[in-house]
Design a protein that fits this description.
heterodimer; A: alpha+beta; two-stranded parallel ribbon; 6 helices; B: mainly alpha; two-stranded antiparallel ribbon; 2 strands
Chain lengths: 219, 226
């Protein structure tokens, strides 16, 4: 009995061991987090920038637009209040210009639940012609070989080169597309492709009126 | 002689993880990432590299502090050490290879609960010196990587008709989509386990036959050895 008491370490030593381990673990984690954070943020910004140039062909520069009240404004600062900053991060779109600083379209990020997880994408919108001119998936965990066809299927992607948003974007079965406002789903990726189409529909409902107001205010 | 014995020990500890005690094919450990991310060869190698980093670093650290960590809190200490290295790997992959980080998804974080890593700390690193612990961890992680690569290569070749994104069969190949879906992982693993077990049994039979010959006909066996 005495022997076992002697061999077992004191509670203080046990607490100290775990405390020291936790302290050094925290130190390492915070250092790595702080040193990699700028690179991670830069990667995300670069991916978004690349996507903006892809979805609005001919885009040479862009500005970020955020909501202030019920109106779109060009973002000049990161938001004055914490609430504004949070809202700006969640809801922002990009206005794209050509060489001559003429507005050629808008890049609109959005998200919609797919088969596995949230599908995040960005679409290009031409407000003059009222057509969608491009779409890219930013983040997706759809099933490889099936759901991920939303990124790889050229026929599906071709739907978004000049997709009319009026009267409204409509889903049709593969091989039955007749009008400019119709999008064909993908065989074997119906849920994922419908999620993308819903993303487009919701983005258009949300942003078209405010974009029209902003364009009118610029003229 | 002692030096030879020591070299043999290091050699044995290294080789056992790759073949005799392969974590996936023999010990059947760490199957969660083995099945989940082995849909392509490149994902398999990335997961193997992340696991290798965590296993080797954790084993070295556990072995260094094995005399300081009280055995009553050893498991908690192992988990703290492993979780730290996993998070380091997570941030590093996210910063430097974002595409692979995106493909591996939540499974990088789940390396923390890979029973292979915790198992090696408990069974080996906590009882042996740093050099041996590092050699054991290297062997085990290479064995894990070998198993993941076999699974990933089979699934990518059959399920996508490609290896490392290089198409092998031309445009007329119809991919076996099931192979890159979860059932394909179970099927491939099942066949690989079957093969390795068959191979093990066959080796045992050959060995037994050899011993039998040596026992009853020592002259022939001596002659055959030259």
């Amino acid at each position: 009995m005495e022997l076992s008491q002697e061999s077992s370490p004191s509670p203080l030593r046990l607490i100290m061991t775990l405390g020291i381990a936790g302290f050094f673990s925290g130190l390492v984690l915070v250092s790595v987090y702080l040193s990699t954070l700028p690179i991670i943020e830069a990667n995300k910004a670069a991916a978004l920038k690349e996507a903006v140039f892809l979805v609005v062909p001919g885009c040479k520069s862009f500005k970020t637009l955020v909501m202030r009240g019920k109106k779109l404004v060009v973002q000049t600062n990161e938001g004055n209040t914490k609430q504004e900053k949070k809202k700006d991060a969640a809801e922002k779109i990009f206005v794209c210009y050509d060489d001559t600083d003429k507005i050629i379209g808008f890049a609109i990020p959005g998200g919609e639940p797919g088969f596995q997880d949230l599908i995040k994408g960005i679409l290009g919108y031409n407000a003059d012609q009222k057509i969608i001119i491009g779409f890219e998936v930013l983040e997706s965990r759809e099933t490889p070989g099936l759901g991920d066809k939303i990124m790889k299927d050229d026929t599906f992607r071709a739907n978004f080169k000049a997709l009319a948003v009026e009267p409204e974007i409509t889903v049709v079965k593969p091989g039955t597309r007749e009008a400019n406002h119709e999008v064909e789903t993908i065989t074997g990726a119906t849920i994922s492709s419908k999620a993308v189409i819903r993303l487009l529909q919701k983005s258009m409902t949300r942003w078209r009126p405010v974009i029209a107001d902003w364009v009118a205010s610029q003229n | 002689m002692e030096h030879l014995n020591e070299s043999k020990r290091y050699h044995d500890e290294f080789v056992k993880g790759i073949w005799k005690e392969n974590p996936v094919f023999i010990a059947v450990l760490g199957l969660c990432p083995a099945l989940a991310v082995s849909n392509t060869a490149i994902n398999s190698l990335a997961m193997a590299a992340a696991t290798m980093f965590v296993l080797i670093c954790s084993s070295i650290l556990v072995s260094i502090f094995r005399n300081v960590i009280p055995k009553e809190v050893r498991i908690t200490s192992f988990v703290i050490i492993i979780a730290t290295f996993v998070t380091v790997a997570d941030f590093t992959l996210q910063a430097f290879v974002p595409k692979i980080h995106k493909d591996l998804g939540a499974f990088i974080a789940l390396i923390v609960v890979n029973c292979l890593i915790l198992g090696r700390q408990e069974a080996f690193a906590f009882k042996n010196n740093v050099k041996l612990a590092a050699v054991d961890a290297l062997g085990m992680s290479l064995g894990f990587g070998f198993a993941l690569f076999c699974l990933g290569a089979i699934r990518e070749i059959l399920g996508n008709g490609s290896l490392f994104d290089v198409h092998l069969f031309g445009p007329h190949f119809e991919p076996w989509v099931i192979m890159i879906l979860p059932p394909g992982g179970f099927l491939s693993l099942g066949f690989l386990l079957l093969f390795f077990n068959w191979f093990k049994v066959r080796q045992q039979q050959v060995k037994a036959k050899q011993e039998h010959i040596e026992q009853f006909n020592p002259i022939i066996s001596l002659n055959s050895k030259g």
